[in-house]
Amino acid sequence: MLKTVFLTLLSLAIAIGLGGGSVWYALNAQDGVGAIRIGQWTAFPEIGTEGSDPYSKARVAREGVLALGRAEGLSFVAERDEAGQPLKRECAYTLEGGYPTARFWTLYAADQSLGVLDTGKARQAALQSYEVLRRPDNSVVISVGDRPAPGNWLLTAGFGKMYFVLTFYDTPIASSTGLSDVTLPRILKAGCHA
Amino acid sequence: MRSLLHALILGLLGAGIVHIAVLFLVPEFSERDAWSRLAMASDLYKMTRLDAEAGGAPVVKSVDPMFYAAACRFNLADGLVRIRAPGDVPFWSASVYDRSGHNIYSFNDHNANSEKLDAVVLTPAQMIDVRRDLPEDLQGAIFVEVPIEEGIFVVRAFVPDDSWKPIVSRFLEQSACELQDY
Question: CATH for B34-180, among 2.40.33, 2.60.40, 3.30.160, 3.40.50?
Answer without folding.
Answer: 2.60.40
